[in-house]
Amino acid sequence: MFGYKSLVVGLLGVGLCSGIVPGAVSAAELVVPVRQAAGQIVWLDTQLGRLQLNADNSPGMQATQYTITQHDTRVTDRSDKQFLAITDLRAGQHITIESRASGEEQIATKITVEPSSAPLFQEAEGTIESIDAGNPGTFTLKETTGTQPAGTVSLFTFDPNTIVVMESPSLQPVRLEVKPGDFVRVAYVVNDGKRTARSMMRYSVRPAPSTTITTTTSTTTTTQ
Which pLDDT tens digit goes with each residue over 45-87? Predict the structure, then answer.
């Protein structure tokens, strides 16, 4: 019995003297590789903690989804002098994003907002009143939040071939199957006084009112 204990202690001593600790993991093995991608924000929801990016070098402009959080995601500008937050991000912005893998998810650790002269996306929520999936397509939205007073029915145009449509809570792109009566959040740009929708989120359950209201000085065309 004494010899057995001596053998165990002897083997452990050899391991410690050689710098090998049973079960130890080196610092290099703990480092998770950082991925970097640049592109345009297609859609984001800070409450759900999700952001979709169309990478510049992605074949067919395929969107990649990232997880964003107020505490884990650092947002800054190119000069790294502005202290921004994920709530300062807008669909349409061109960004560079750094992320680490966590299981099947990509966790955004740093987002750098690039300067751009392109019009930023604006958002509006409301109920679809009518829709025509022509080319170009059009739909009317009875707004509850956005740049117009609640209850305003606004006209939007869209391209059926490029618009991104998702359904909460799945957040997966689907075919354009929205219909009158659906409650949606629309991301759009204003060009020549016309609202052009670029993405749409359809909700199976109407979300709680947002505390953030997007303001703009752009001229918009609405129908009463």
Answer: 888 899 999 888 765 556 789 999 988 999 988 887 777 888 8
**Model's pTM, two decimal places?**
0.48
Whether 32-113 and 122-203 share one fold: the answer is: yes
Token look-up 């680490």 returns: 100
Length of the chain in terms of residues written:
224
SS (H, E, C) 157-220: EECCCCCEEEEECCCCEECCCCCCCCEEEEEEEEECCEEEEEEEEEECCCCCCCCCCCCCCCCC
Distance (Å, whole) CA 165 – CA 188: 12
pLDDT, tens only, 141-191: 999 987 788 889 999 999 887 787 877 766 565 665 788 999 999 988 887
Domain boundaries, the chain: 32-113, 122-203
The helix/strand/coil state of 102 is: strand
- CATH classification (class only), 122-203: mainly beta
Q: Tokens standing for 161?
A: 């071939």
Give dist(CA 113, CA 90) in Å, integer: 10
Q: Which CATH architecture has domain 32-113?
A: Beta Barrel (2.40)
Provide the b/e sequence for 121-137 (b: ≥16 CB within 10 Å).
bbbbbbbbeebeeeeeb
Exposure string of 62-90, with b = 16+ CB inside 10 Å and e = fewer, is ebbbbbbeeeebbbeeeeeeeeeebeebe
